[in-house]
Amino acid sequence: MEQLKGTGKKARICSHLHSKMRAFFHTQSTPRILLFFIAIFVKLVASLLGGIGFVWKDTPMMVTGTFIWLIWFILLFLIAMPRTDKFLQNQVHWLKPSAIVISTLFIIAGLGLLITLTSFGVGVFPAEDSNKKSNELMASFEGVLSYNDGTALCHQAIENLIDGNNPYAMPNIVTATILYDNSYDQVTPLREGEFADIFPYPSDAQLEQLWQRVSQNPQQIPPELESKLNYPAGCFILPSIFFLLGIDDFRIVLLIFVLPILAYVAWKVPKDKKILFISAVSISLEIWFGIAAGETGSLIFPFLLLAWILIKRQLWLSALFMGIAIATKQVAWFFIPYYLILIFRIMDLKKTLLVVFIVAVIFLAFNLPFIIIDPLLWFTSVMAPVFDDLFPLGVGIITLVTGGVLIIESPLFFTILELLIGITAIIWYYHNCNRYPHVGPLLAVLPLFFAWRSLWPYFFYFDIIILAAILIEDYSIKSPKRLVPVSLFANRTT
To answer: Which residues contact 240 (CB under 8 A, 6 or more apart)?
Structure first.
């Protein structure tokens, strides 16, 4: 009887939530915003298929995940185009219920997962099972909710900085992995030493065997593991402020940066669209999993978000935040061409040059001291992802290689493809920025999808940047060189 009562109560709660969502979407949404909620679901499916396929070494699943990622890019492109509202105005009859169901299910599932993990931890999920694939999947899930090697090296760098040492001179992935209770399968292997002839990626057994050997002598860094601190200085300077205040968990620092800035952006979103933005952010599970894992991309996400939405309102603040972003992680560098093109189109060359100056000054303020101390060390560290011999990995078209469909052992083809797509995207945006300004963040990361390394964190936050820009303001052409904001709900389309 008690179980029946409990089940009935849960059903009433779900029914109430569903009715609220229906009423909310009925009054506040437009076709492309409804499409955004569907895109969130597509993105999650792509992430799950790609991740599970990689863990299980299942080529069809990996390639299918990549194909769904491409669909997600197409959806984001449509969402960023103002004409999509007019194009899909007769499709609301299925877009709306789809968005409602997705949002409701994500909220319920997210709350359930949060309560489970905070109450019982990852250990609530069975670690031992007769099914080997289930064991592998649960082990990888546990790894997602712990430091990765980049986070461990950043944490180590923060402590080195606080101790008065040059963080670029003292990284050690072995000691960092041991100290922060990281897993050996979270390290980044290099095609060096005993891994030189392995392709496309070392097996778990090979990584474990190497780890058993190197962990016996942690001070000796093996050539097979990436141990350089390959981020600009902002990655350890920004968190060090909070470490000095006694907050010594990188993930908590990420929350401190992300939550207030998301709250600020929600405040800037017009009143009738606030809940739409909050709902979209809440069900974007990749953002929260990224923070839970200490993913370093979470550190630049709020600054890129502010930089993009403040262009029209407070240009110097926008430039300041973009400077912080590029001084912290290299992924932000891909946003710079589109950011400057948009400013040039909205304003003029003089203000664009002013922004370049501010961004450069901020970047140097973070990095110049370490460049002066040892320019070669700083350069080889920050540019390690380009020059070090890394294995192919990611959710992009590289899955054709990692899945064994294609045998391409050199990154040259993918580097050329990445450059061609990047240059083409910049040229296209320059000529079409007036009509499609919010496509910029999408085009910024698109080349990475075709790179030798196309890791999923490269793609987990820029869709929120696009959504925020759309909800806060849109643009229409006033002159060939200038844009003016117009309401999202304006009848005129561009």
So the answer is: 158, 161, 162
β-pair type (482-486, 474-479): antiparallel
Q: How confident is the model at residue 2 (pLDDT cuts 50, 70, 90)?
A: very low
Omega into 200 within 30° of 0, i.e. cis? yes
- Retrieve residue 477's tokens: 């052409």
Same domain assignment for residues 328 and 387: yes
Q: Does residue 223 sit within a domain?
A: no
| Total domain count, the chain | 2
Final residue in a domain of this structure, among 180, 214, 248:
214
- Look at the pTM and tell me if it is higher than 0.85: yes
Could you tell me if residue 205 is inside a domain? Answer: yes
HSE of 207, CA atoms in CB hemisphere, 13 A:
15
Question: Tens of pLDDT along 282-337?
Answer: 988 889 888 988 899 999 999 999 999 999 889 999 999 999 999 999 999 999 99
How far apart are alpha carbons 389 and 30 in whole angstroms? 47
405 and 258 inside one domain = yes
In the predicted structure, residue 48 carries a pLDDT above the cut 60? yes
Residues 249 and 360 in one domain: yes
What pLDDT, in 10s, does the model give residues 52-81?
898 888 999 999 999 999 999 999 999 999
Same domain, 324 and 387: yes
Which domain, by its residues, includes 421?
2-128+232-486
Q: Dihedral sign for Cα 52, 55, 61, 64, please.
A: positive
Mean pLDDT of 223-238: 96
165 within domain boundaries? yes
Q: Is residue 105 domain-shared with residue 152, that is, in the same domain? A: no
Whether residues 321 and 392 share a domain: the answer is yes
Q: Give me 430's structure tokens.
A: 């320059």
* Residue closest to 58 by CA, chosen among 449, 66, 313, 429: 66
According to the 3-state scheme, what is the secondary structure of 282-295? HCCHHHHHHHHCCC
